[in-house]
Amino acid sequence: MNIALIAHDAKKKLMQNFCIAYRGILTKNTLYATATTGRLIEEVTNLTIHKHLAGHLGGMQQIGAQIEHNEIDLVIFLRDPLTQKPTEPDVNNVVRLCDMHNIPLATNLATAELLIKSLDRGDLEWREMYK
User: Fold this and answer.
1) CA atoms of 19 and 70, how far apart (whole Å)
2) CB atoms < 10 A from the CB of 39, how many?
3) Do 4 and 69 touch, CB atoms closer than 8 A?
């Protein structure tokens, strides 16, 4: 499965900890991330991450394009709901694209854990029908 990992600045440490905790599951999949998030995850987990541009430099749009082309099966996007971002249109676009293309999306730790455990059980194999 192809998994996109995105985290706002205030959630990057949480994303690192999430990836440490679920490294065993993540290592079985292909991972994509925006530049800084990907680099930070690689530093603490030694996972291989395909890194796009930084989110504010077009990385969010690159992930959006992957979603549109059915190249992403799961998105974990740890958002900071308390701080308005100048890239908010890109954030909303990723959420909209996930809804349009039926891509499971987690925007908080609780949902991310549910989705990653579901992935490990094989509950997301239905995504193969979409490819």
Assistant:
1) 23
2) 14
3) no
CA dist., res. 130 & res. 98, Å (int): 13
The CATH code of domain 7-108 reads 3.40.50.1380
Please write the tens of the pLDDT for every residue from 15-45: 999 999 999 999 999 999 999 999 999 999 9
Global model pTM greater than 0.85: yes
Q: Where are the domains of the chain?
A: 7-108
How far apart CA 88 and CA 72 sit, in angstroms, is: 21
Kindly give the interhelix angle for 109-121 and 12-21, rounded to the nearest 10 degrees: 30
CA distance 116 to 5: 12
